[in-house]
Design a protein that fits this description.
The chain has about 250 residues and is an alpha+beta fold. It has eight helices and eleven strands. About 35% of the residues lie in helices and about 20% in strands.
Amino acid sequence: MAAASVISLRSPPAEHRTETSCSTCSLAKLCLPTGLNQKELERMDSLVVRSAPLQEGEHLFRVGDPFKALYAVRAGSFKTYCVDDEGREHVLGFHFTGELMGLEAIYPERHVCNAVALDTAAVCVLPYAELNALAGEIEGLRSQFIKLLSKDLSGAVALAGDFTAEERLAAFLVGLSCRFQHRGFSAREFNLTMSRRDIANYLRLAPETVTRVLTRFEKDDLIAVERRTVRLLDLLKLHELAQCMDEMHA
């Protein structure tokens, strides 16, 4: 996938705004703390800017970009990654609707990874200075961000453990199942917008290992794969395989 030039979302023009508000958005329960009253939601609306669509391969931000905002995925999906001095890519995560990106840039005040759209995608831009000021006034907003940071950290700790390829891939599929179900989609059938090479990179496995394990899962009637569509046929067994990794970041 060829990298496109960085998309500037710092001060989007008025035509990039939509009539959708936080109070009516179906994703609000995913990216905002519960219990916000109407006035607090209106204050959130006043600072949120909704981006124009990004196409597959377009970057939302790159390493070294000044940190100005957090981004809530409104549609589509993203991959975050970095490239080391040897030119090797390291996939850090995949991000779906209702999830925040950019939290890791708060301390250095510059982005330490790249975020690229995996399909047609859009985000809500949350200018950090205004958001931080608002978090000091709205109970639960700051703690929400701390919880999200902790969740990202626990996921990274789990990946660093000494787990088998089967356990890693089962945990990945179960994790996707839970994330899609939480968004109101099917927990048993979904499309993988990321490539198998990206999945392997993220799970710290060789691409051929991922292919071999997926084939084994199919033979054991745990899953069915058709191109990028995956059906989880035995979710209970996958949960059992993934249990040791789940316990690392439960």
